[in-house]
Fold these 2 entries.
Entry 1:
Amino acid sequence: MLERVHPVRPLRASQSGKLIGTVRVPGDKSISHRSIMLGSLAVGRTTISGLLEGEDVLATAAAFRAMGAKIEKHEDGTWTVDGVGLGGLAEPDDVLNMGNSGTSARLILGILAGHPITCFLTGDGSLRKRPMGRVIDPLGRMGATFTSRDGGRLPLAVTGAEEVMPIDYELPMASAQVKSAILLAGLNARGQTTVIENKPTRDHTERMLTHFGGKITVEPLDNGGNRITVVGQPELTAADLVVPADPSSAAFPAVAAALVPGSEVTLPAVGMNETRTGLFATLQEMGADVTFANEAIEGGEPIADIIVKGGKLKGIEVPAERAPSMIDEYPVLAVAAAFAEGKTVMTGIGELRVKESDRLEAVASGLRANGITVETGDDWMIVHGTGGKIPGGGTVVTHLDHRIAMSFLVMGLVAETPVTVDDGEPIETSFPGFVELINGLGGKIAAT
Ligand code: S3P
């Protein structure tokens, strides 16, 4: 069965009393995907603690199992991956279904580009709309061949190159997925593959490749970007990993705590990689009481506890160059902006149109359905804040997008009348236990 079939689960969030408590949000999605992928390409056994067990990561694990890696969950909650070694993946005997996950699809295409096998990939109704041309183009230059639907959409077939050509490639958009796909394909090339990113994007692939013994250099550019070079055909050796809590998931209880008066929420051991933390800087600029404690390094990634207290917010201009470091957080930032006094201007956010949904459109219509004035253009959005009184009362269409669902449930916790999301089931892709976690802090989210 190719379609992701799930029961539609409408949820409603109502105005809540203060949110109080300490809660650990699930493991980082980006790092979890990469731990399964690099673990599968390494020689030996990788043990992973804190892996996100959301549907997206489980789709990645299923794909690598289908290609020969042994991936298991143990009673103590850790996962192990017994890798097949670089170049050792076997042809899967069925279509790989990547569900809702763009990261799985694009990074796996990079890995498959360096394996001379043929694979067929598909995904759910959301993923089948998303552009794959952005990886097909550079991976095609490296010698892989693709047959895809019109516009480079899934389902598609890929046949990896016998001899991978190393390339130098300047990213046409700020995308860690495209960067990672090329670097992963470059692992099987004879020679060096270079990616130039003019805006820094999340660097988990680079960090983890180093952790597994890969040879990768990152040279900062004058424009703030990076030139990243990977040496092909390294020996990747299994290495244990600890996955930090996901800052993109922490964003939801953090914004909820910032908006609900009297709240105080602590989120322990959240990933603080600076390519990911733009939202927290933005909330601080808006006047939110956000502080950090217990800063440490875990598994090559910085972590800290985040403490958020409720208070007043003011609208600001979010710098466009900050967008890649908070690209997944704009939907929930828009909710904070609706609550703030004055307008919040967000620019340089065209990439939101090609996420799990067209998030610019989905956010704007969700805000309007709940009485908020919003203006949008191709790559910008202005939210007119109410200074605290969000009318609410609307039903938000989530378009199979977990972050749209969670953002508007957060809005419902402070709105004058409850906010309904038409389907909360996609939350399982990234944040299993979201409703219970928010309700455990004092929130009011229920099935309708
Ligand atoms: C991701 C990169 C980002 C982000 C996505 C996860 C990754 O996508 O939106 O949720 O793990 O590399 P883009 O590369 O399309 O910006």
Entry 2:
Amino acid sequence: MAVSDHVNLEQFMEGVKKRNPGQPEFVQAVHEVAQDIFEFMEDKVEYHEAQILRRIAEPDRIISFRVCWEDDNHNVRVQRGWRVQNNNAIGPYKGGIRFHPSVTESVLKFLAFEQTFKNSLTGLPMGGGKGGANFNPKGKSDAEVMRFCQSFMTELYRHIGPDTDVPAGDIGVGGREIGYMFGQYKRITNRWEGVLTGKGQEYGGSQMRPEATGYGAVYFLQNMMKHKGMDVEGHTAVISGSGNVATHAAEKITQLGGKVLTLSDSGGFIHDPDGIDQEKIDWVKHLKTVKRGRISEYADEFKGATFHEGRPWNVTADLALPCATQNELNEDEAKALVSNGCKGVSEGANMPTTLEGVKVFHDAKLMYGPGKAANAGGVAVSGLEMSQNSERISWNHERLGEMLTDLMKGIHEKCTEYGDQGDGYVDYVKGANIAGFKKVADAMLAFGVV
Ligand code: NDP
């Protein structure tokens, strides 16, 4: 049977849009993958007949629930929580929990879809899921965050488990929130089990997990650069975000001899031409995780640095690492990076570049590592946390650091296998999409129609 007997890309996307009204982020994520997969599937009748892509783009299930909690003034507050279990063909659902006012079902569906391919790329046995709530932890007291997390878990616990679905952190969910949620899970079920990753080191968390996503994104960049005979050392970098991923990406760039010029948050960005060194990064970590302050305060603290509204992509640099959120780098900003001489982009965040921005990078043949490959280090070390919990063991920092380096190298190799265009250019988007898809698709074929 030829591909012409089946729907083409446009018809497929029309169907996706129709079935998912008002969910632009999800449609965007499916479109980005579908373009490559349609080309790859052209002569692969079995995938068409089994409707594999259509099935991957339809979550196994979406759980939506009410989360009630009481604020410090005794007002009853109501939020909406979700868990999107996208696909468990190759392992238990795995993916973070996001607490942010912008969280919608569309955002979580896009993240769970992306996560399916990302987890497959790591080579570890993990399916794809994502969850969250439209809760804003900013400005809330510790006690309010605790009550919210407990209420959230009071519903979520019945849908997850170490062999079913293992959530982790994401935007707005760090060590503090994971601790509150794990405590509530344990209290309700009377079981200590590896049901969440990103836990504290005292209670089953893996070393290297906090660093893994940011470090991994830089290792991916390093692999792309090595492939071209280049190195991070001596290069400048613009980074967005100032959370877990951004600060650890900045740390690794600095350790490798690069110079970080910017960090940001939703209020704007700081530009420090002297470079954001380790001491300054530690200050930002403290500002964001302990004081829960704003990045603008950096410019008051460090002479020579300036604060600007907007995003950092017009600052001239050799490298760019978007590490804040989705759709934070658009077509014009991508053009600005290219015309300012940027050589490589590695995405610490999920889908930070718009489809139009990706096309600019692609046309300029710039080294461009998409999030599903470049930021997979976080979930990879989460996978290692699951293994350590199951075996009741704990690997040390050094060993996990080596494992992370190897995993990122492996992911880079898989992307190159399917993305090498033969003219020295590697299309990492295509490579990641095809390599991630193939493993999940082959597992689904083995199961028959389920
Ligand atoms: P954090 O909550 O630690 O930090 C998020 C950062 O992004 C903050 O600086 C935040 O600023 C900024 N930000 C959030 N929303 C917006 C927005 N709408 N506009 C501008 N800035 C914004 O999250 P993480 O560092 O964990 O996550 C960052 C990205 O990395 C996300 O895309 C996440 O999905 C992805 N990721 C994270 C992984 C992890 O291990 N943590 C794993 C893989 C991917 P502000 O303080 O103003 O909100």
